[in-house]
Amino acid sequence: MALVEVRDLVQRFELDRGLLGGLRFEGGRLTRRLRVVSAVDGVSFHIERGEIFSLVGESGCGKSTVARTVIKLLEPKGGSVFFDGIDITRHTRRQMLPLRRRVQMIFQDPYASLNPRLSVMETLTEPMIFHRVAATPEEAEARAMALLERVGIRPEQAGRYPHQFSGGQRQRIGIARALAVEPELIVADEPVSALDVSIQAQILNLLMDLREEFGFSCLFIAHDLSVVRHISDRVAIMYLGRIAEMGDKRQIFSSPRHPYTEALFSAVPQLSGGRILNAPPLEGEVPSAIDPPSGCRFRTRCPRALPLCGESLPAAREVEPGHTVFCHRVE
Questions:
Q1: Would you list the DSSP string of 219-252?
Q2: Which of 39, 227, 228, 236 could share a disulfide with 246, CB 3.0–4.6 Å?
């Protein structure tokens, strides 16, 4: 049984809220019509125990919203989320509390995600004591010291505060904080995008080593294809709130089948001066999530669109075991 299973997840946000929100004059009459952002629309996937599953796509495609909805930092508007076989979709905050220890998050911005009023030691020991991972403060401190050393922070730095560390060091502390309560799932929301390129590889290799050592699963959010290729076991490509293609890392990078995936890879330059693929470049702009296209979300920019693409959503087509494409043209 998969550790996480997401079925037809939906997340929407209302705009123009408030007393006068959405009021417009239409045909000489005052009407009220709220605009709704369709951020996530029918996303399904699963995460096996011990694997790194990556969601990748352009900025604004909904991948971070998926991550926050899956762990119920945002309440789902539709669909279901199962964790270890338990449907947590309708769980209240009180019901979610025991699960918070089992699911942790590494945030994108290491400068904003750490409490500036807490020392590194306090940042690690407080969740241990709250979730009763450590029985005493002394045990919590011993665990924290071992974790800090494991992620590359010297023991004498445990009493320092976040502003006394570099960006890479802060992200190492964020990783240690996530591991402090021994989680089964870690959600990493673009954890290296705010770091220097020279530091990114170190953090990615650290995450991969820790996954092998601690055995946690990881939902990894990214827009950098080279990062995804380096760290992932399986990959899902998102476009405007929906998954376009999903499969094993080897399948996605060696034989992409969705026109959007092909175009995405073609935009990546190589050191040789060539491209991963030679698909035609995309034309036009990404449509608004307030008024997305009917049928396939990608059809307005797709060089191979059919009339059928505007009439209905493409069904999932398994082109080979474990490799699923959402496209009318794929047979």
A1: EEEES-HHHHHHH-SEEEEEETTEEEEEEEHHHH
A2: 236
Is the distance from CB of 71 to CB of 103 less than 8 angstroms? yes
Pairing state between β 52-56 and 217-222: parallel
Helices (H), 152-216: 167-179, 197-214
Largest CA distance in the chain: 72
In angstroms, rounded to a whole number, what is the distance separating the alpha carbons of residues 57 and 55? 7
Distance CA 22, CA 31 (A): 8
Report the predicted TM-score, pTM, of the whole model to 2 decimal places.
Answer: 0.90
Alpha helices in the chain (DSSP H): 63-70, 93-100, 120-130, 137-151, 167-179, 197-214, 225-231, 249-254, 259-266
CB 58 within 8 A of CB 223: yes
Tens digits of per-residue pLDDT, 130-179? 999 999 999 999 999 999 999 999 999 999 999 999 999 999 999 999 99
Nearest CA to 292 out of 36, 79, 34, 11 is that of: 36
Identify the architecture of domain 1-19+32-51+60-96+234-331 in CATH.
Answer: 3-Layer(aba) Sandwich (3.40)
